[in-house]
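User: I'll paste a sequence; please echo it back and then give the predicted structure.

Assistant: Echoing your sequence first, then the prediction.
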Amino acid sequence: MKERGTEGIRKITKKYIAAVDQGTTSTRFMVFGHEGKVVSVHQLEHQQIYPHVGWVEHNPMEIWEHTQHVIKATLE
């Protein structure tokens, strides 16, 4: 199998990089510019569910919906 070269990759100038930060209390999406500075960010807190003392749970559908929402809101 022939490996792909990286020559073309070096010619491409990237302007932005983005990241999802899924934390204990919220979902955040951030876009960083070329210099590493935050260009845009949006965050939503999610419900904390405490079934027992010392335990915390989250609704996976809420996390998924929040992830989609913060990405869309950040890119608008």
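The radius of gyration is 18 Å. The beta strands are 17-22, 26-32, 38-45.
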